[in-house]
Structure formats: C-alpha cells, structure tokens
C-alpha cells in the first residue's frame, strides 16, 4: 500500500517537563455519553490518601483508539518479554465519585 505523498506530517513537541513523565500505579476511569475521564494516581503503601497526578479527558472515539493501541502494545510486549502477571485487585475508594471502572 502506497502512502499519500500529499499527506501532511504532524510535528509533535515533547517538552522536558512532560518527557520526565508522571508515575501512576492506579487508573480510575469514568465516563459520560460524551467523554471518558482517565485519572492517574500514585498510591503509596501504608498511606490512606492518594492524589490524582494527571487527568486525561477523551472523546469516546479516542478512548476506543487508546484501548486498541494498548491491547496491541501489550501483545507486542508479552511476545518480547513474556506474560504480564496481573496483580491483586485494587479497591477503589467509595468517596471518589461517579460510576467507575479500574485498570
């Protein structure tokens, strides 16, 4: 398949601050009819409180693309490094609000 030569390239800028990343070991996902909200949290052992470190708001179509990209990347990772073992389920705090799913 030949790529369209008239297709424009998208230059993506990655600042040093963003490139450092933010560690998260819990994601809480909520949704409405028009958007998905992904809250990334770093839960520290023994501490009763955790703060949302980053929040991403996606249109449903982009959430589905993200899901497909994650599935594809996990398959590639496991093919190269072996099966990822699921950890213990994490209980989501009742006071967080909204209908939730967790990852």
Give the overall pLDDT as a whole number.
87
Radius of gyration: 17 Å
Distance between the termini: 36 Å
The low-confidence parts are none
Number of helices: 2
| Biggest sheet, spatial arrangement of strands | 3-2-1-4
The total of beta strands comes to 4
Q: What does it look like?
A:
By secondary structure, the chain is an alpha+beta fold. It has 2 helices and 4 strands; from the N terminus they run H-E-E-E-H-E. The chain has helices at residues 16-19, 60-81; strands at residues 26-31, 36-41, 52-58, 101-102. Strands 3-2-1-4 form a 4-stranded antiparallel β-sheet. The longest helix is centred in the last third of the chain and has 22 residues, at 60-81.
Layout of secondary structure:
Blueprint: H1 16-19, E1 26-31, E2 36-41, E3 52-58, H2 60-81, E4 101-102
Question: Any descriptors?
Answer:
single chain, 103 residues, alpha+beta, 25% helix
